[in-house]
Amino acid sequence: MPQSCAIEQSRGAGKREQGFERNRGRSDRPPAGSRRQLLLVQLMLPRLANPYSGQTDFAQLARDVPSFAAFLQDGHSGRLTIDFQDDAAVRALTAALLERDFRLRIELPSDRLCPTIPSRLEYLLFVLRLALLTSEEPLPSTLTGLDIGTGASAIYPLLAIRTAKSASSSSTSPFPPLKMLATDINDHSLDFAKRNVVANDLTEAVQLFKVDAEGATFPEEVVNAVEQIDFTMCNPPFYDSHEEIAASLAKKELEPFSKCTGADNEMVTPGGEVAFVSRMVEESLVLGKQKIRWFTSLLGKYSSISPLVDLLKSKKIRNYHVHALPPHGYTIRWVLSWSLQDKRFPLDSVGDPDAPSTPTSAPSFPLTRFLSPATLPATYFTPPFPSSFSSRDPLEHVRETLDEVLRELVGEPIGASAEEQGGRRKRRRVVRSHEGGSVVSGLEWRWSETAGESEGEEAEEREVWIKAWRNVWSRKARRASTHAPSTTAGEDGSTTTSPLLELRISLEVVSSSSASPSASPPPPRPVSQTKPQPQAKLTLTWYRGFDAEYPSLTGFWGYLTRKVGERVKALGGGTEREAEEAGEGKGRKRRRDEGGEKAGEVEPS
């Protein structure tokens, strides 16, 4: 259901050309799992960019769509504009943009809201990226979306189909065929929606449903029309009453220069958008387990975010995110997304690759306190490397140390240096390998190479992708592994078909003076030592695993960082074994004091 008539489409016409280069990975063979999915989807992401990045050139638009020329008038600085208080001019602008940029011809009734193209497209692109990045297959055979309250224009289904087709025809990686379901409670709106679908020859791609205003938000006849729904979209009525609309206008939350012609069912609902989206959350508790992968809704009021996030937490839903859409004009909107399935929200990849990577697009509306700890990356800083450690690259040392810890967990042999074989006490060296473990061992991993920072620089293995098929890191699991053979079967004898956890750990060398204050503080340096020592920064990103496995994730992360930290610390004095024994001794004392072992918490970056 469209939310307001604030006009943002006066801004933006320039195409964005830059590609998505967040991960410049290369490997000697095709990668697997989440990494392969990211690389393949990134081929399509540059084609999923919003073209409205600056002010619209109305003169050029009138040349492209001659029928729009009648609404032009002189504006500031000699630029042509339109009268945003003129409802006909606003509708002509929307129609012209759709015709020129998407080859869509739509009929917009004068008693219904006129959709604003730049902001609607921003929401749509966000949802399409989310669906692609979290699909079960790197390139799914098809995608299905559901628009709740499609309105008279059916703008989201029409834009979605045209955008997907355009991305597929202009990309080296084909965009999967897209089907859209759309619902509305109003006969008048549905009549126009049907006309617009038919007029654009999209009846096979868009299916419309009349639903009961007092019934379920996701009726059975709608969700059962397809095997699976990959994403839902919703632009709910923002307000609880007409009095609230008047108060909002008085506070200038709506643009005073735009004329509003929305019907009551498009603007007002009992309880406002909080009550509407709350019903969606309640229904998702059942539908989200199998039928629907991602639920999303646009939010028009910043005050709505807190109660809805609190509701998700009370339902033990950790896989959620609040995203601020890049503003167009003066309007700011947010998207609330949540899922009950095991593909995690891809925080580092889902946004527009050309948009600033900030948690919110407006400093006056901070989002940090609404972010889920299970969605945010976790960071760990090792102790500083000693000044005497100058013969080797710290990044290489941490890479080998982490690989060694993983091999120890699955019982793989670790090569010893010649000095160690001769009796000298020296750190063991890992046999260099790009991968290790197996499904049978319960843990498998693969190192991926990233290009150097400058041209000609040698590539380094700075990230490892890990699949954990079962818990092999807890003390109970490590003790059991010495007495029983490994297996991937569940307690009921069934075979495991998906990993318990899938994650990525990225490595980076930083100066001890630039380490995050949230990390464990390094030991104090002597006053005479003024040169900052290098530290390794480990960053964890969770890609797969149900919410119930969050304690397993924190336990695994705690185990890995403790082992790596102990072995880096051992470089500064004493032996590695002494450091490990000291750590184990502290652990035994802590268990005696607390009466058991507790899993560590992930510290968000």
Automatic annotation (TrEMBL):
Biased amino acid composition, Basic and acidic residues: 14-29, 592-605
Any one annotated GO CC term: nucleus
Transmembrane segments: none
Gene3D superfamilies: Vaccinia Virus protein VP39
Alphabetical GO biological process terms: rRNA base methylation
Organism: Rhodotorula toruloides (strain NP11) (Yeast)
InterPro entries, alphabetized: METTL16/RlmF (IPR010286), SAM-dependent_MTases_sf (IPR029063)
Biased composition (Polar residues): 483-497
Lineage: Eukaryota, Fungi, Dikarya, Basidiomycota, Pucciniomycotina
Protein name: Ribosomal RNA large subunit methyltransferase F
Gene Ontology MF annotations: methyltransferase activity
One Pfam assignment: Methyltransf_10
Keywords: Methyltransferase, Transferase
Region of interest called Disordered, as start-end residue ranges on this chain: 1-33, 413-433, 477-497, 511-534, 568-605
